[in-house]
Specification:
heterodimer; A: about 400 residues; alpha+beta; 2 domains; six-stranded mixed barrel; two-stranded antiparallel sheet; about 55% helix; elongated; B: about 230 residues; alpha/beta; Rossmann fold; six-stranded mixed beta sheet; four-stranded antiparallel beta sheet; globular
């Protein structure tokens, strides 16, 4: 088979040529190395960031709606929304009455920072959430000790609290927490539950927390009677249908006339993911641009050195043609040389990227996937083929008489 | 009488050198038969090299016809010319033109690679060719480990390896001392006696005297074409 023989000869020539000009080949391929390192680390970072984002965001639950005064996503026309009425606890109760038992509905007030004291021990910077009994049904907290507060405790505005894992451990150091009295910003509460570890959400610990009844939160800590409302369907429902139904109910609760704009927002995890994906796409295309640029520069380097290589071996090309090498054979020879130089650069780039991987993965939970390896090598190979083509064609079209005469 | 191996009729070759047109060949007619030993002579600028390039299928005539072993070479494109060079012509150059980083064996293998011969067969043929030129012990040497005469022997082995119909030698002794040159010429004598067709292009009278027919070129035309008795 002619092509097979030509190919193996071309490989041999390419290896010889690279071998004879080691330093030059390495310098030439540096652009490709940098391009491949960029592309691998970039895709590793992008993968990692989206993975950790999706992981974090999954805490919000894909089937949960959050009714609030403000939208998470839409920050335009803020002045129109400045004067919006608070969502009061009574409205939440009204919503529960209207919706019946088709939904789990739980009003809450979130994220005030407080100081928790027990005897001489005190911890600051604890996140305090006011919730209702339905929170337990949605979040399925697990307890090392005790329980979540029930509906009676919420309605009766009882001074009880549930502590997160970190808070329990810093304050009680292994002792029982349930039944103990703690002070939240100097107001005394009784501990009725200690949670097990929950992990982090978007970089925040979910264990450095204390939960109290939302009624208590409003009376003791909040400066406005405004709550958020969490809504979950007990079984998996179409999220859009659910949103529409809740929106209708909320309009009724808020006594909005037909044609009047909503003065509340229904937030969900999906829209956060959409926004994230938008941002992610922008970052990706920036990365792609940088990678493309360095590969372009690398490709020009390869093309340049291939022109030199062709010029240096003019006489050899003439000889090969005299001995019966066709245009295709010469073309193949030089394109293979460019391809091998680039693949060599691709492999070096990947090795460097793998060497960096442990450092990067300290910050981002990601690794270089097989897909990335394949893509990086394909890109390197494509750069070789594209930038090798023009010099190789010049070699292939050389006149045997002229090139044999070349010294 | 059988058909000539080479049949050249009224071949002209003109080059455009800027505004000027140089007529290197001005109507050459030539027939060479199988088994002949021909020397082509002429001073530089006579058109001798141009004729050799056309005979070697490295170049095509501007006008006129060239039939080599039944193939109309003047009608061929680059790739067809490459194929016919590979099958019909064995080149021996003044400067040897060996691949410097390859062994003798690989240098000799080269035409067979382009002919599409498989590895095992290729190595066998190349080894035999090297044995034929007396380089059995030098197969794995690179050109810079060989003497000038040995290099030219490798080149001769390379020229023979495809069983070409013509051995075309361009000043084969030009880069060799007299003794080594004689050695190479003895090798050509031997090849001639074995039935190879040899065309020798030279400007040295005593080299040309080894051939059985001497063609002299002057100003792009054949000035004389005479048989020659070797004493």
């Amino acid at each position: 088979m002619k092509l097979k023989n030509e190919l193996s000869e071309s490989f041999r020539i390419a290896f010889d040529a690279i071998n004879a000009n080691k330093m030059r080949s390495i310098l030439t391929t540096l652009g490709i190395v940098i391009g491949v390192v960029t592309v691998s680390l970039m895709s590793m970072a992008i993968d990692g960031v989206s993975k950790s984002f999706v992981q974090s965001i999954s805490v919000l639950g894909s089937d949960i709606l959050y009714i609030e005064k403000e939208s998470w996503m839409d920050h335009s026309d803020w002045w129109k929304r400045r004067g919006r009425r608070d969502i009061e606890l009574s409205q939440a109760k009204e919503l529960v009455r209207l919706a019946g038992d088709r939904y789990i509905i739980s009003p809450y007030v979130s994220h005030q920072v407080c100081t928790v004291k027990y005897k001489e021990e005190s911890i600051t910077g604890v996140f305090m959430d006011g919730g209702s009994a339905a929170h337990q049904a949605v979040n399925k907290y697990t307890f090392s000790e005790g329980r979540f507060f029930d509906a009676n405790e919420v309605d009766g505005s009882r001074p009880v609290c549930v502590l997160g894992y970190d808070a329990v451990h810093s304050l009680f150091k292994g002792d029982n927490a349930v039944g103990k009295k703690v002070k939240l910003n100097d107001i005394t509460y009784e501990v009725i539950g200690a949670m097990e570890k929950r992990g982090t959400f978007m970089g925040f610990s979910m264990d450095n927390t204390v939960y109290i009844p939302v009624t208590r939160m409003l009376s003791d800590f909040a400066n406005r009677p405004n709550v958020s409302i969490l809504v979950k369907a007990p079984d998996m429902k179409n999220i859009d249908e659910m949103t529409e139904e809740i929106r209708g109910l909320m309009r009724k609760v808020r006594h909005l006339q037909p044609g009047e704009e909503d003065d509340f927002a229904i937030n969900k995890q999906g829209s956060l993911i959409d926004t994230f994906n938008k941002v992610n796409r922008i970052i990706s295309s920036c990365g792609l641009f940088i990678t493309g640029l360095s590969l372009f520069v690398g490709g020009i380097g390869i093309m340049n050195i291939m022109f030199v290589s062709v010029a240096e071996r003019t006489k050899e090309i003439g000889l090969r043609k005299a001995l019966g090498a066709r245009r295709r054979t010469i073309l193949l020879q030089f394109m293979l040389e460019a391809l091998l130089i680039c693949l060599f650069g691709g492999v070096i780039g990947l090795l460097i990227a793998f060497a960096f991987q442990p450092i990067v993965s300290i910050y981002i939970p990601a690794s270089i996937s097989l897909k990335t390896v394949v893509i990086a090598l394909l890109i390197a190979a494509a750069t070789g083929v594209i930038s090798g083509y023009i010099p190789a064609r010049r070699a292939a079209e050389m006149d045997p008489v002229d090139s044999l005469r070349n010294e | 009488m059988s058909l000539p191996l080479i049949q050249i009729e009224n071949v002209c070759k003109a080059y455009n050198m800027g505004a000027e047109t140089v007529h290197a060949l001005r109507g050459v007619n030539l027939e060479i038969f199988k088994g002949e030993y021909v020397a082509i002579m002429g001073p530089s600028g006579s058109g001798k090299s141009t004729l050799m390039n056309i005979l070697g299928c490295l170049d095509t005539p501007t006008s006129g016809s060239f039939i080599l072993n039944g193939h109309a070479v003047d009608q061929m494109d680059d790739d067809e010319l490459a194929d016919i060079r590979n099958r019909e012509i064995g080149f021996v150059f003044q400067t040897f033109n060996l691949l410097p980083r390859s062994t003798s064996l690989h240098n000799v293998e080269l035409p067979l690679i382009y002919a599409g011969v498989d590895l095992d067969e290729r190595l066998e043929i190349a080894r035999n060719a090297l044995i034929q030129v007396g380089l059995k012990e030098r197969m794995n040497h690179k050109p810079n480990e060989l003497s000038g005469g040995q290099r030219q022997r490798v080149a001769v082995a390379r020229a023979l390896v495809n069983n070409p119909s013509i051995l075309l030698a361009d000043e084969p002794t030009g880069n060799l001392d007299t003794a080594t040159g004689d050695e190479i010429m003895l090798l050509f004598d031997e090849l001639y006696k074995k039935g190879n067709t040899i065309i020798l292009v030279t400007h040295e009278e005593d080299i040309a005297q080894r051939a059985r027919r001497i063609i002299r070129i002057r100003d792009g035309r054949i000035a004389s074409d005479e048989p020659h008795q070797v004493s």
